Amino acid sequence: MTSAQEPGGDVRLSGISKTYGSFTAVHPLDLTVPQGSFFALLGASGCGKTTTLRMIAGLEEPSSGTVRLGDQDVTALPPYKRPVNTVFQSYALFPHLDIFENVAFGLRRRGIKSVKKQVGEMLDLVQLGEQARKKPHQLSGGQQQRVAVARALINHPKVLLLDEPLGALDLKLRRQMQLELKRIQTEVGITFVHVTHDQEEAMTMADTVAVMNGGRVEQLGAPADLYENPRTTFVANFLGTSNFIEAEIGGTSGDDIVLKAGDGKLVLPAARCSAPTTAGGKVLVGIRPEKISLTHADDAGEIPEGRNRITGRIADSSFIGVSTQYVVDSPLCDSFEVYAQNIERDGRLAPGAEVVLHWNPAHTFGLDAAQDVEAGVEKVEEDASA
After folding, report:
1. Over the range 52-83, which residues count as b (16 or more CB within 10 Å of their CB) and which as e?
2. Under CATH, what is the fold of the domain 242-368?
3. Which of 68, 168, 304, 359 could join 12 via S-S bond, C-beta 3.0 to 4.6 A?
């Protein structure tokens, strides 16, 4: 095969779907993973992310649609004929082989005799050169995970698929491995497609995240864009925490929408509203807890003009080191959450205190009020197998 015909590393899914009898695991979706990118499929258990990954790998046959890797249609190819390798949560290392032989396995199976240089380079890449002669059981979980990555990468796949690879690790090790995997991906420059239910993991590692919900891609974008500009309540709640106020569209002022909320008004940039903007229509006003400032009611006169503001009473507060998390009851929203960095703590901000919540209107986002405010809030810790 000439280099001009060689398939690129991008993954293109066209109208891909998967049904099991009457159950649709993945609704028809179109997805393009750019070559050389770190791409995450993020969602709760049962959202279809692993099924999508398995269709790319060839481990699951699509009910409709095509899978292309670069210019090659691989839909009908078995897994071993696709230029992909998969790293699973279980690592699946050979317990009787040492680390060197585990990594060399794919080369030896292809009949390559001289493996020492390639295996050495790969072990150096994953920083395990010193461990070459140890058996898998002598390594930590994070080290075993890196061996699995090295064993997959040595075959020079166009795409590396990672199915919840950090799920078995404890929190501290998982955070180290997130940075480690990102470093490896940057160094080798091949396309990584990573399935996870962990929002922080996806946002730490990926260039692009596809948030999946109920077998569909709910929103696709860079982590910061998904967080700052969620288009649905599911994305707003699944990626972090959001406060919502139901408001009525009163009119416009320049590039802003003016909203009526209770007795007051709020301002929302028109560009940050994904809901219909007809006057009199309802909108869900969203604001992240860390974007809000909290001022004691006695000092309300010191709040700068032009900020969105609502009044309330502190119901609860939790000191968690870097910040204090407040729950504020307001006529517009029960249990409004505010995260205040612990720089200069105001001792008056305690449960029972009357306060004003205020924030820059530019940090407000608007969503369709017909959506479920609780969507995406469900706990995702229990089972991440789907």
Report:
1. bbbbbbbbbebeebebbbbebebbeeeeeebb
2. OB fold (Dihydrolipoamide Acetyltransferase, E2P) (2.40.50)
3. 68
